[in-house]
Amino acid sequence: MDNRASAEQTARDALAEAAAVDRRMRARTRGYGVFVLALALFFPAVLLVLGFVPLDPVVLAVGSAVVGLSVGVGSAVVGARLTTTPRGFHRRYLTAFLTSAGLYTVAVLVGATLLADSAAWWIGSAVLTAVPLAVLGWQILRDARRPAPGQESGAARRA
After folding, report:
1. Rg for the chain (alpha carbons), in Å?
2. What is the pLDDT of residues 9-50, one digit of tens each?
3. Is the C or the N end of the chain the one with fewer CB within 10 Å?
4. For residue 115, what are the contacts with CB-CB under 8 A and spacing of at least 6?
5. CA dihedral defined by 95, 101, 106, 109, rounded to 10 degrees?
6. pLDDT digits (tens, 9 = 90+) for 137-146
7. Are 111 and 125 in contact, with CB atoms under 8 Å apart?
8. d(Cα 90, Cα 80) in Å, to the nearest integer?
9. Three-class secondary structure of residue 152 per DSSP
């Protein structure tokens, strides 16, 4: 009987350790969610500045290059510093980032050449550009808070 009780206790200890590791890993992935949400706010903020602050085309080109470079460097720094990535993060991030970057590029090119005086264009483009990254950031933060399968709270199991 002692061997069985000992084995059960060992199993409980192993499950408790696995749950603790899961909580630590999920907590470490929250940084990605926050980063992606910040980036989702950054793209539209730049678009709104481009649309509503009169800029020389040279300043626009240099500013866009600086913004693009800073976003790229920021992504690399954040990626290098965080030790844990959410499941499928690289593919999902690349998809969301490239979609937002593509929308941003179209918004800047069309807005600067054809619709420079259209507030609706710049505001609509800013909102649309934020959507892919905002959705990804929300998903990452939601998944970081969600309990792992099989580790629901006692209330959830009883229901």
Report:
1. 22
2. 887 888 888 777 777 776 667 777 888 898 899 889 888 988
3. N
4. 121, 122
5. -160
6. 999 888 877 7
7. yes
8. 13
9. coil
Structural contact between residues 136 and 36, judged by C-beta atoms closer than 8 angstroms: yes
Cβ atoms of residues 134 and 40 within 8 Å: yes
Distance CA 84, CA 26 (A): 8
**Portion of the chain with pLDDT greater than 90, in percent:** 22
Task: Judge contact between 119 and 51, C-beta under 8 A.
Answer: yes
Rounded to the nearest angstrom, the gap between the alpha carbon of residue 123 and the centroid of all alpha carbons in its chain is 22
- Which residues have a Cβ under 8 Å from the Cβ of 149 and sit 6 or more positions away? none
Higher pLDDT, 91 or 4: 91
DSSP letter for each residue of 69-117: HHHHHHHHHHHHH-----TTHHHHHHHHHHHHHHHHHHHHHHHHHT-TT
Which uninterrupted H or E stretch holds 133? helix 119-145
Are 97 and 133 contacting, i.e. CB atoms less than 8 angstroms apart?
Answer: yes
Give the span between the Cα atoms of 40 and 113, in whole angstroms: 24
Give counts: helices (H), strands (E), the chain.
Answer: 5, 0
